[in-house]
Amino acid sequence: MAEIDPESLAEVAYGIFEVYLNRELHARGPYLFELVEQGADFEDDVREIFERFEEDYPVLAEALLRLFGGIDAIYAPLKAGEGALPSKTTRMYWIVQDAPGPAARGLDDEQVGKWLIFVPADEVDEAWRKVRDETVKGSLGISAKVSTAKPNPDSRDERSVIYVYTRDWADEADVMRVRERLRDLGFLERIGYKRNIETYRGEYSEEGRKVTYYSA
């Protein structure tokens, strides 16, 4: 078996830890973004959750400690907005916020699709807050995600992008309900809706060629 590069392992470990942390924090009460925006001190929570993470994933926890040097160095960027605000997040390509309740389908299901909202990087935090908060309320789609400040080699646009997922691209009434709610939030310009099917086929919009299924 090929030896895993320590830096790559640490990056994977951080991604898994952040998902783990968000889940455990929300099980205790507020989401990570709520703690950050409230200016709360949640270092003790991070320490306790990391101890559980270390029990469950000792190799990954060790990789994180080698990368950061200690829990203090993990906590500091989290408190500053890492994983909560797109402009402050440099270790993950995406921030994801699921709607409450059990998901009818996973985000990788072929029936799932998403509205794509492109915004300038200096406006993404405000735009994301609107979409995120409505997603948490359950008044948009099944999930949403936003690109972050971490440079993404797969990015095809200098702007930030927010995806707003719906459970079934064939349910036009629900797809358009979500679009109308986005208008209510201030997203008035025409945007496109893309099915997962096109994404899996590697189809992307090019000059003179669009792959969006809906546009509104």
Structure characterization notes:
The protein has 216 residues and is an alpha+beta fold. It has two domains: 6-84, no CATH class; 94-215, 2-Layer Sandwich (RNA Cap, Translation Initiation Factor Eif4e). The chain has helices spanning 6-28, 32-38, 43-56, 58-68, 71-80, 124-137, 172-184, 196-200, and strands at residues 94-98, 113-119, 143-147, 160-166, 192-195, 214-215. A six-stranded antiparallel beta sheet has the order 1-3-4-2-5-6. Helix 1 (6-28) packs across helix 4 (58-68) and helix 3 (43-56) crosses helix 4. The longest helix has 23 residues, at 6-28. The radius of gyration is 18 Å and the shape is globular. The chain starts with 5 loop residues before the first helix and ends with a strand.
